[in-house]
Every structure is written in structure tokens, then in C-alpha cells.
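Side project, low priority. Logging it here so it doesn't get lost.
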Amino acid sequence: MENESVLNALDAAERSFEQTPQNVEDGLDVDEAELVQLRRACRLLAAASRLLDDGYYTVVIESSFVAIERTIQFRLIHDGAMDASEVISSHRRLYQRGAEIGLYDDAFGERLAELWNQNRTKTDYRLGIATESQAKAMHELATDVHQDLVNASQVRHECLC
């Protein structure tokens, strides 16, 4: 990249992540890793709701999938089935882990994984074009999964939704 403006922007971005955190996002300044995941999911759902109204369907679908995954990760950590430092890089594996600890049954976990596999990549990489009905359905699914998993936890009062 030879564009000086872009190089300066890259330098600034790199420096911003090296600095001591200041002006952190409200609600996410918690020490427990499980609560960070929970509250990220809350924020993703709130953002998706706003973006749905503005017609940004692709981002709503992406945010909804990530909100589901952050909520599952919250419960895995909360229930002691996952160490906070563990990284599950496979979406399918994350959905399977949720089924393994009884957050939902195997069939539901498999359906989530297939939904992600067949549709998220398709809309994210523009192999298909996201629609309003898809975005609404995904947002509703993510909201329902989030509420169900959070309500069954011992820290539902920590939810920001």
C-alpha cells in the first residue's frame, strides 16, 4: 500500500490497540469473561435491531449469528464447560459444545450449524443477497436463543437487553 493516508490510518489503528484503555464502552467494563461475552451479545442484538430498521440486512444476519455464538460462549464459560482463555475457532464445534453440555439438544445444535454453514457464508460473501425477511427471522432467532439461555442462567440480571 502506497497511499500515505491509508498507511497513517493503519499506524493510528495499531497504536490505538497498544494504549491503555480509556473511554471504554459502557456496560462492557466487567472483569468476568463470561459477562463480557454476555454483554457483547446484548450489544450485537441492540445494534442489529437498529440496523434492521435501516435496511442493513446483511449486517443484521451477521450480527445475529455472532450474538447467538457469544451467548453460547457465555453459557459455556458460566457453566464451567469452557475456560475463558479457550478459543473455539469452528462455528460448528461451538454449536456442538452447547449441545454437549445440555444447553439444547443435538438436533438443535446441528440445525444452528447448518443454518450458519448454508446461509451466513452465502450472504456474507455476496453469493446471495440478504432479504428483509431473512434478517427479521435471524434477529428473532438470535433474540429468542439469547433470552432462553440467559434466563436459564444464574446471572440473568447481568444482561443488558
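Brief comment: The chain has a mean pLDDT of 92.
Revisit when time allows.
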